[in-house]
Design brief:
By secondary structure, the chain is α/β, with parallel strands linked by helices. The protein is built from five helices and eight strands. The chain has helices spanning 18-33, 36-48, 89-94, 138-159, 192-203; strands at 65-67, 70-72, 77-78, 99-105, 118-121, 126-129, 178-183, 209-212. The strands form three sheets. Strands 3-4-7-8 form a four-stranded parallel β-sheet. Strands 1-2 form a two-stranded antiparallel ribbon. A two-stranded antiparallel sheet has the order 5-6. The longest helix is centred in the C-terminal third of the chain and has 22 residues, at 138-159. The termini are far apart.
Length: 221
């Protein structure tokens, strides 16, 4: 029996924010002229302010999966390292990712390695990241995630009456998507285990899963 390959429609100008997705082709050359870390900061700031495209179409059901009791709308996610300080979770999930992982988050704020520390490999279309766990620290990240969590709870409460109990809901503590938090140790810490324990105790209430970065070649353990 002949079977047709699976295909999914591409967002067009009259679907969702398709024109914003298309506009990135005009913006990207500008970002390429900037210092790599400056471009990164601008991208995070734009996502934090909602100045990024928003995917409004639901994911095809065939992409859904369940892992560790969490329902992912799709298996494509954003790894830790982009939104290190949980500034843009809502905006990044709105791009259509099935999950977003923030961090690495260290107990005490630290600057990371001296700049420059992000280098473009233009021919390969890649970068070298030598940031060294630059982090605003657990307290700052907990405040942001706590505020976001409270806002989502209020939104969910106000929309309960208009939603059906029979609806299949994907996502977790971050609302429509899955939120992971990547935990790191401070460079000068004398007790790495205590650093991770502090991260678990402080941030687990906001995360659907936690990741411990127990080895980092960017600075000596």
């Amino acid at each position: 029996m002949n079977q047709k390959p699976l295909s999914f429609p591409i967002t067009t100008s009259n679907q969702g924010d398709g024109w914003l997705f298309s506009a990135t082709t005009l913006v990207n050359p500008f970002f390429a002229l900037l210092d790599a870390e400056v471009a990164h900061r601008l991208a995070v700031s734009a996502a934090a302010r909602g100045w990024v495209p928003k995917e409004k179409r639901p994911d095809p059901s065939i992409l859904g999966l369940q892992v560790w009791g969490r329902r992912f709308s799709n298996p494509v996610g954003l790894a830790a390292g982009f939104d290190k300080n949980a500034e843009a979770v809502e905006g990044l999930l709105g791009l259509g990712f099935g999950f977003v992982e923030v961090g690495s988050v260290t107990p005490i704020p630290q600057e990371g390695n001296p700049k420059p520390r992000i280098f473009r490999l233009r021919k390969e279309g890649a970068i070298i990241n030598r940031c060294g766990f630059n982090s605003e620290g657990i307290v700052a990240v907990a405040k942001r995630l706590g505020a976001q969590h409270g806002k989502r709870k209020m939104d969910e409460t106000s929309s309960t009456s208009s939603s059906s109990n029979e609806d299949v809901k994907h996502g977790g503590k971050a609302g429509p998507g899955i939120l992971g938090v990547n935990l790191g140790k401070n460079k000068t810490s004398e007790d790495a285990a205590a650093d991770y324990v502090q991260g678990v105790h402080t941030l687990s209430q906001y995360a659907d899963y936690l990741v411990g970065s127990v080895l980092c070649v960017k600075f000596p353990l």
